Amino acid sequence: MRAIYLILSRELFVRVKTKQFWILSILGPLLMSAFIAVPVLIAKMDDSAQTIWVQDEANLWNQKLPSKEKLLLIPAPLKGQALIDSLAQDENLGLLTITPEVFGKNPGQGLKFTSQSPLSLKVQDYLTENISKTVEDKKLEENGVSRAKLDSLKTPEFSIQSVKPEGSSQSSEKAFGLATVGSMLMYFFILIYGMQVLRGVSEEKSNRIMEVLISSVQPFQLMMGKILGIAATALLQFLIWIGLTMIVVSLVLPAFLGDAVSSSATAAPDAMSPDALSAMADVPGFLLVFFFYFIFGFLTYAALFAAIGSAVDQEQDAQQLTFPVTLPIIVAFLLAQTAVAQPHSATAFWSSMIPLTAPVVMMARFAFDAVAPWELALSMVTMVLSFVFITYISARIYRIGVLMYGKKVTLKEIARWAFKK
């Protein structure tokens, strides 16, 4: 145990002292925050306005053209060739022609936009929504029905209140965001740091440092020390990411962007929104379950990556051998999307029980509170047992692979090492 602890400490402190570790630890939360802040800042800095001339042959907007900020609608001041020449010379100028066909069965036939470039989706949505409402108002007026009367008959927008049998409230939006965050973090951290284990083992082997280390400690102790050291590094960086992200999103961004950040967070994917981060506190035990699957999921994959790293002399040689190891985690990420949509389905259940896919898929199911206590217990026990078994097999490969030089091995040969006495 002392040898494992010494190797663990060395791996942790060597990696934590590097500039790369701290750059990535700080850069990660900043990039996540920039994903929210940059669109808002760009929108604030962009003062350019688009001008659209309107030829309203249908007298649709006979009272007032619906201009808004950064979109100016004015009656077309020119006609004929002079109008065409003006549109050809000004890239920021457009002409919207409205004919009486806008009141027909296909309103789009009564609308035409002429410009050097098409309408942006945002402007097009604004215009079509306004035109649709105005056309509807005129048809209602012709039939003696007022807009106020119609609005009073309409059912307002609503959402279904979700509660547990004991009466506590639930939120589908927060569950979705939490499931997305949990599965994405699990996927990326396991894959990134698992590859670091492979890279570290292959580098020490290629530098012939492994021969010196093996003379002092057993191969199993060396492998476990390296895996646990990198796991501690990953866990530390993850905690830094979570802490800095919550500080920046909840304190820094509102201070600089004010109310605009809330609209940006709403438009951003649920995985990036502040609600998705704060939702962790709304699901009892989520962090504990996350850390359990993160630790054992990483240790399981790290043992496999260590075995592959010990079998190759150069990192480039490991590309073909790593595919069978990376494939399950990629499949798990895809299965997590199914679990988000249908957390109680048979696919979600079995993929949350299989050790190589459970760390990612279980995050999606647990966020929706779709895991019975016995299911969680069974999955955890399976994770621990699979970690012990895979570590045992990987250690048998590792003890032979670390001293094997000058030969490119195949998966078939690695499998033979696993059961060689």
Number of helices: 16
Unreliable spans:
261-277
Classify the beta-strand content into a percent band: 5-15%
Radius of gyration: 30 Å
**Biggest sheet architecture:** 4 strands, mixed
Structural class: alpha/beta
Global mean pLDDT: 78
Number of domains: 2
The largest sheet has its strands arranged as 2-1-3-4
Describe, in plain words, how this protein is organized in 3D.
The longest helix has 39 residues, at 219-257. The protein has helices at 2-16, 19-45, 80-89, 121-142, 147-153, 172-206, 209-214, 219-257, 260-267, 274-278, 286-311, 319-341, 346-351, 358-367, 373-401, 411-418, and strands at 50-56, 71-75, 93-98, 111-114, 162-163, 169-170. 66% of the residues lie in helices and 6% in strands. The protein starts with a helix and ends with a helix. Residues 261-277 have low confidence and may be disordered. It is elongated and about 90 Å long. The protein is of the alpha/beta class and 421 residues long. It contains 16 helices and six strands.
